[in-house]
Protein 1
Amino acid sequence: MWKSALGSIAATSAFVLSMTLSVAAETSIARSPEAKAVVSVEGAEYYFSGNCLLMSRGNATQLRMTIPGSGPDDERVFLAIYATTFAPTQFTIYTGPTADAARDASLTDDRSAWRVRGGAPKENIDFSEASLSAVMTAAVYSNGEKVGDETVARLEITGC
């Protein structure tokens, strides 16, 4: 009886392992240390460069970036973006007196450091190989307070 139970457990484990491996084999993960992003909002442009993570499985793709950059008047900023083909995309640009301060604000989602925050439904996101472009709704912030009405932000990511 034990031999039969152990055989059944071994067969089940082998089946689960083979299923796990086949799913893992279908997942594509690409990392790039040289990705570039540009966010344009209300005539201001923010430039970013750094690491990008692009994952695909079947028809689902997701892109994640948390990278430093600069804005108007050499402002130190940090971009955090999570984009997908299956759910809304969200991004936040954080600001700080130094690049490290802007990055630290992104780690705790410090509202007082928000500069631009926005997003878009999946239909507004155009994924192509190693790049993404989007037209999103965004809000501009100063000291944690929303300034003006919502506006349009354009996002271009290349080299991911």
Protein 2
Amino acid sequence: MNRLVKKVVKVMLADIFAQVEVSEQLAIVVPALMIIGYALKRTPKVQDWLIVWILLFTGVIASGFTLGFTVNGIANGIIAAGAAISTHQAYKQTKNRDRDEIIDKVIDEKLNQKK
């Protein structure tokens, strides 16, 4: 792309992102999405890969109804879904890390007993 096109795209993106203001309503939407995600995870007919997309769609719809279907409303829905998914992943990986450390410790103890 030439320089002019790059500048135009940069200005357009800056204008779009300037419209986005993180709303306080995310404090309600994020936990709600986490609960919905938990329920979907326990639903046998819903595949794991679909949960992320369902949460994204639900977040955008919820924010759209409360903030309006504008760039700001849609962006807040995406941010809410990202926050819910990231929080769940951080919890899950921290929990698994503790379990993995215990397993590694037990294996090391067993190996040291055999020596």
